[in-house]
Here is the input.
Amino acid sequence: MEFNKVSTRNAWAAVEHITSQVRSGTLSPALTQWVRGHGFNPDTTVFSGVCLFDDDIYTGTLIDHHEHVWEFLADLNDDSASELDDVTAELGPKSPDHPDADLCDRVTMAILFHREELIAA
Here is the structure.
């Protein structure tokens, strides 16, 4: 996919970078294992962003192989404190199909990134 604006290229690069880090385990092998343990295949899951919230606690948003968008809080020390919510129904303009979509938004870009990976496969 070709983007003309620097801001959209930056959003693409950010999604690609964090997705690569989670998939390879270089961000945190335990986080990659947590993703896998919650039924997501890291090789087909795309991440719009992941933040270290506290020691071994990550927050972020991922897009699964069905293009559902999930917000998560992953407590790597206490899985019972973890949260995982499907927010697909509430996407609104974060969906690339919405008329007011903003390609600089990382959730929107992550969905587009996911679609590009499907085309390339």
Remarks:
- The two ends are 14 Å apart (CA to CA).
- The longest strand covers residues 46-54.
- The beta strands are 46-54, 57-63, 69-75, 83-86.
- The chain is about 35% helix and 20% strand.
